[in-house]
Amino acid sequence: MQEQTTADDQQTKGVRDVGVVIQESENNRPVIEAIEADNPGCSVMHTPGLVRITAPGRIVVTQETVEEKLGREWETHEFQMAIVSYFGNIQEWDDDEIVIAWDH
């Protein structure tokens, strides 16, 4: 006998959001803009001093896009100075990109 899947079941088994909270500053605005550009469908919420970015499944931060927005070279380790917190797992962090996603 095959189980039927309801819309509620699909929603609970759906893709979980991941996110990052970044300190809002002049230096970090290009990083935020780059994340928005590389993650269509992400949600951005501004609060005093902080920007919370969420997306279903994963967030990718690419060095190339950040450099385009900043107008200078940028190394991914600089991201540590921008973030306040994140939820999800850091699945990849190398010289070219950072990927935040759930392991399961």
TrEMBL record:
User: One GO molecular function term?
Assistant: monooxygenase activity
Position of the signal peptide? none
Q: Which domain of life is it from?
A: Bacteria
| UniProt entry keywords in alphabetical sequence | Monooxygenase, Oxidoreductase
Q: Which Pfam families match?
A: MmoB_DmpM
What InterPro entries does the annotation carry? Answer: MOase_MmoB_DmpM, mOase_MmoB_DmpM_sf
Q: Its family?
A: Belongs to the TmoD/XamoD family.
How is this protein named in the record? Monooxygenase
Give the species this sequence originates from: Janibacter indicus
